[in-house]
Amino acid sequence: MIEVSKLSKSFNDLEVLKDINFQMRSKEIVVLIGPSGSGKSTLLRCLNGLEEPDRGTIQIGDVKWDATLQASAKKQAIRDMRLLTGMVFQSFNLFPHMTVMENITMGPMLVKNQSEKQAIELAESLLAKVGLLEKKHEYPSRLSGGQQQRVAIARSLAMKPQVMLFDEPTSALDPELTGEVLTVMKQLAEEGMTMIVVTHEMKFAREVANRVIFMSDGIIQEENTPDVFFAQPQTERARKFLRQID
Ligand code: ADP
Ligand code: MG
Questions:
Q1: In the chain, at which end, N or C, are there fewer CB atoms within 10 A of the end residue's CB?
Q2: Looking at this predicted complex, what is its ipTM?
């Protein structure tokens, strides 16, 4: 489903991603962890077409972005990648002047030319799934952080992505609201969604991930099943990181 090879990205003099290689099967759940500043968000943003890598290739489904493509072909690949991937951010990013329903129906109507009726039906089924159907006419500011994040997940799913990318989706939430968001993500995983999740929730990683990828300094330092990774981290960096978050 995803194949990233020799991906590099710098901001000015700072090389944030250094020759990243990894592959993912359909329906796989990868948890991406590592210290702050190690390049996790930049990697997700490259997959979602929000950042343009300097070198390397990204293949998602049938779409291939390659640094050596012509500018117009790159642009098209980025548009396609954005449609294939749904992204959920730490900060929810709902449109504050739109109701929950408007937030969710906007993308399908504007980008996928769905009728309002179709878009509303889809939004209602997704809101039911995240347990927020009764909030459909509320504005985001009237919802808790956990509810806003569940709406953000529903909004992302409304675009029918093939891969969901979560960038610390619970980091901005009070601890008592974290569980409701993780429950929705777990359900999504059980339904067979392909997911990459950047998170500090190690219990979620242990329970839900098929694989843990540990990044630091712009490099994938190790990857393993959660069982092996948490019991026997191979590198000193990973051991140090796990001691710090314990
Ligand atoms: P992580 O998500 O693992 O904390 P990031 O990918 O956000 O790491 O950032 C990696 C490094 O890249 C950090 O040093 C960060 O300051 C830098 N960085 C990220 N985005 C930008 C940007 N748009 N411009 C300049 N530097 C950036
Ligand atoms: Mg980050």
A1: C
A2: 0.98
